[in-house]
Design goal:
α2 runs antiparallel to α3, α3 runs antiparallel to α5 and α5 runs antiparallel to α6. The chain is built from 8 helices and 13 strands. β4 and β5 form a beta hairpin. The protein has 2 domains: 183 residues, Up-down Bundle (f41 fragment of flagellin, N-terminal domain); 104 residues, no CATH class. The strands form 4 sheets. Strands 3-11-6-7-8 form a 5-stranded antiparallel beta sheet. Strands 4-5-10-9 form a 4-stranded antiparallel beta sheet. Strands 1-2 form a two-stranded antiparallel ribbon. It starts with 8 loop residues before the first helix and ends with a helix. The mean pLDDT is 89. It is of the alpha+beta class.
């Protein structure tokens, strides 16, 4: 082999090998420090794409698990309210048995009716205040919506102002609220025919807004104005206008899977448990009728009829609770399935992305040894041209 000075092939070869081992050491260090086999697309582009999809699926499944657990809590809230309604209906039955006996007279039956009416009022109060995240669970409508037949609508012009928002989420469904205005006192009144609330209407400056929050009735109106307007102008424009509410859907759909389709959703219907005339459930409607009949004529016969009506109502509540219980069991099974699927996907993702510490430690050790050897050999290769000097000395 020729002895040359300008090109040190041995040194170039040692440098190339040292660069390769340094890169291998850096890769091993990166994987050991991050715990991941794939840190960038250059490590494994296909594996990175697969792991990204798996990661999205896992996070979606975990959110589905949380959704299902929230749904179980929502149903348990509804069932808790129904449980108390059944307890109160049981007390009504007990009182009906007492009133159906001739050992009590009309005076005592009057006392019994007093308690019956209190129980009726409280049952309906329970039905109306059993809510989850603001949604009524026992009134046959999860939410109250704005009925389009009302004359107060979004965008309604009231003088130089306009209605920009109407919130009826806290109002009772099936109500007609009417506005009236007293010019002398700047008082705006909202009434449903039984209850009313007064607010003081304020002057509208340019580029301003004001919220008319009739909190006692659950209705809120927001007015906005670009040019501004006088109180009386706005009040007169709102006077006689109506806000009409209607019942929203009684069904709730729970997203319990990673994809938006029927296979990943569970629907539950929250039925009306208010003891009022006109309830769609015949048993509960019958109880309201029987209580009204007994109040009208406090006789043993009417008390006896109340017994049968209470039994039908108890059966209706039991049917609702059975439906909720079945839904809870279904959701519990869905959670178990989602947890298993998420666990298996996480294991599969680990196989694709996670670093094998035993293999990477061995690779790092190998690279470090080769780096040390390569550095030593590079030094040797760089000193090899010095042998030419020995030949040059002999020329003298």
């Amino acid at each position: 082999m020729a002895m040359v000075i300008n090109t040190n092939v041995a040194s170039l070869n040692a440098q190339r090998n040292l660069s390769t081992t340094s890169s291998a050491a850096q890769n091993a260090l990166q994987r050991l420090s991050s715990g991941l086999r794939i840190n960038t697309a250059k490590d494994d582009a296909a594996g990175l794409a697969i792991s990204t999809r798996m990661n999205a699926q896992i996070k979606s499944l975990n959110q589905g698990i949380r959704n299902a657990n929230d749904a179980i809590s929502m149903i348990q809230t509804a069932e808790g309210g129904l449980s108390e309604l059944q307890n109160m209906m049981t007390r009504i039955r007990e009182l009906a048995v007492q009133a159906s006996s001739d050992t009590v007279g009309s005076t005592e039956r009057g006392y019994i009716d007093t308690e019956l009416q209190e129980l009726l009022s409280e049952m309906n109060n329970i039905a109306n205040r059993t809510k989850f995240n603001g949604n009524a669970l026992l009134t046959g409508a999860l939410a109250t919506t704005l009925d389009a037949t009302g004359t107060v609508t979004n965008g309604l012009q009231v003088g130089a102002a306009s209605v920009t928002n109407i919130d009826v989420s806290g109002a009772a469904a099936g109500k007609t609220f009417t506005l009236s205005y007293a010019a002398g006192t700047d008082t705006l009144t909202l009434s449903d025919g039984t209850n009313s609330q007064d607010l003081t209407l304020l002057i509208m400056a340019a580029d301003s807004s004001q919220t008319l929050n009739f909190s006692g009735l659950g209705v809120s109106l927001t007015l906005s104005s670009v040019a501004g307007d006088a109180v009386d102008t706005i009040g007169a424009a709102l006077a006689t206008k109506t806000v009409i509410t209607s019942a929203g859907s009684a069904a709730a759909t729970f997203q319990v899977g990673a994809d938006y389709d029927s296979n990943n959703q569970v629907s539950v219907s929250f039925e009306d448990a208010t003891v009022v005339n006109g309830n769609a459930d015949a048993g509960i409607d019958g109880l309201a009728d029987a209580l009204a009949t007994f109040t009208g004529a406090k006789t043993a016969a009417n008390a006896g009829a109340l017994l049968s009506a209470v039994d039908d109502a108890l059966d209706s509540i039991s049917t609702m609770r059975a439906s909720y219980g079945a839904a809870q069991n279904r959701l519990t099974n869905a959670v178990s399935n989602l947890q298993a699927t998420s666990e298996n996907l996480a294991a599969a993702k680990s196989q694709v992305t996670d670093a094998d510490f035993a293999a990477e430690t061995a690779a790092l050790t190998r690279a470090q040894v080769l780096q040390q050897a390569g550095t030593a050999m590079l030094a040797q290769a760089n000193s090899a041209p010095n042998q030419v000097l020995a030949l040059l000395r002999n020329l003298g």
